[in-house]
Amino acid sequence: MEKVIKKWSSPGFLNGHWDELADSYFQKREFLELLHKYNPCAQRYYELYCDGTLVAGTIVYTLKIDLFTFSRIPSPFKVQVIGLPVSVASPPIIGVPEEFGYLLSEILKIEKGVILGINFKEDYLQDSVLNLRTLPTILLELPGNNMAAYENALRHCYRRRLRLIREKFSGVTSVTSGCSEFSEEHYSLYLQIMKKTTTKLEILNRDVFRNLPSNFRITTYYSDQVMLAWYVVCQDNDTLFFFFGGMNYELRDRFQSYNNNLLGIIEDAFGSQSRIIDFGQTAEIAKTRFGGVLSERRMFFYHRNRIIFGLLKLSRKLIEYSRVSENPRVFRSVN
């Protein structure tokens, strides 16, 4: 079997069958083209062909990150990232799983410097790379078909907690629209969150949000015309993905804005007849208290220089995400 690697500088050159290999919208050409235009970070796109047929593909980009970000130690390094160039938990590799190891091993021969592969669902390349745990994403499989069924499925203490959270938003108004309505005020609240976040990879510019396609929508909350919070979700078949949000931190605790944002996403999911919510990879305690369950993600580091690779191995405790959270028992047992 003849295997050929092709490398492209733009998603416009990708094989027309690329999307057929994708598992989520974030892996598809339309979204990759949006990021290539509005979030440029030297993206390059790899395709693997077996006997002329496209069987796998992935994306690599260049970014300066804090290598010890999970240890909260400033440690900026320029890294070649095998990943989607935006902070979502969808794996960056598509196609036939049996071919992933070969594609990744070939990329390690081509790319130079420190290489980070992120948000995989399992380990690859075994001892050739440093496989580590990264932030899990949080998935909520919705019980029932409406909000009333969800609330009825909650244990009493969590149902009471939800009512108290909702009361904080008494008198708050919401507006849902397409993302072309994304404003400077929205962006300023996004930046407030990014300044507080210790695990960010990149900061998106405003144009990314304003140009999101019609399967994305933004919901904004106001109190007396003051913007409290907002969230963007993406509809992908029966899954609703939380994309990003913004928060007025001065008013967050008074209005329980973060939890009400999560509650709004759940209500949104029922309204769109979604079966699953992917809440993303941060604030796992808050999200599991609404019934979300941790879904593990893996990453790996590599450098072809043995000394540097050895130093990475010695630093694994500083690099790896080590926090372990238990899934609380949010829902009543069903006999």
Describe the structure.
This protein is of the alpha+beta class and 335 residues long. The chain folds into 2 domains: 155 residues, Gcn5-related N-acetyltransferase (GNAT) (Aminopeptidase); 155 residues, Gcn5-related N-acetyltransferase (GNAT) (Aminopeptidase, 3-Layer(aba) Sandwich). It contains 12 helices and 13 strands. Strands 1, 2, 3, 4, 5, 6, 7, 8, 9, 10, 11, 12 and 13 form a 13-stranded mixed sheet that branches. The longest helix is centred in the last third of the chain and has 15 residues. The radius of gyration is 21 Å and the shape is globular. The model has no long low-confidence stretch (mean pLDDT 95).
Summarize the structure.
The chain has helices at residues 18-21, 29-38, 100-110, 147-153, 156-167, 184-196, 206-210, 252-255, 257-271, 284-288, 306-314, 316-319; strands spanning 3-8, 44-50, 53-68, 73-82, 93-95, 114-120, 130-141, 173-177, 216-223, 226-236, 239-247, 276-278, 293-302.
Keywords, separated by commas or semicolons:
Aminopeptidase; 12 helices; alpha+beta; 335 residues
Into which percent range does the helicity of residues fall? 25-40%
Tally of discrete structural domains: 2
Indicate the CATH topology of the largest domain: Aminopeptidase
What distance separates the N and C termini? 53 Å
> CATH class of the largest domain, anyone?
Alpha Beta
Total count of helical runs of at least 4 residues: 12
Approximately how much beta-strand content do the residues carry?
25-35%
Reading the helices and strands in chain order gives EHHEEEEHEEHHEHHEEEHHEHEHH
Low-confidence stretches: none
Name of the CATH superfamily of the largest domain: Gcn5-related N-acetyltransferase (GNAT)
